[in-house]
Specification:
Length: 182
Amino acid sequence: MVTEGLGIEPRDTLSKMVRDEKSDSCLRMNHYPTAEEEVEKMVKVGFGEHTDPQIISVLRSNNTAGLQICMKDGSWVAVPPDHSSFFINVGDALQVMTNGRFKSVKHRVLADTRRSRVSMIYFGGPPLSQKIAPLPCLVPKQEDWLYKEFTWSQYKSSAYKSKLGDYRLGLFEKQSHHRSNV
């Protein structure tokens, strides 16, 4: 659906990376036990703020609140729990491949004081040798690319050396040649 919506040809450009027998995809289960009562309104973090590095993440969880996304202004908004829905997150790799048209959104999970939370996340990652760069059908001229080309292995290695909440794509952004004077 993503490739169709963006007019990407061939249509299996993204899905073949995830379906490849050497794909770096995985399924993870998270359990967040109930948090003890908040002390002086201290926030109990279940999983700190971060973006997902892969192409796409598909999340399903029980009916317990906790998932939040970060808005452009830095405020956090709760995502209402829905045990019958899948939540789709754009990963850092897809942000690069769409040259920023789709954004990898920072998110976090807060522990609930009354109920435990269980989530399952499928992380769709490409093979380690896959080159990640803006797709030529979306950005034909390399000078219009916002990101440098890199392999998934290079990005993954870089991400593991950073802190969870760091902006990991910064190392792979191209420096603008057209800086405006402010």
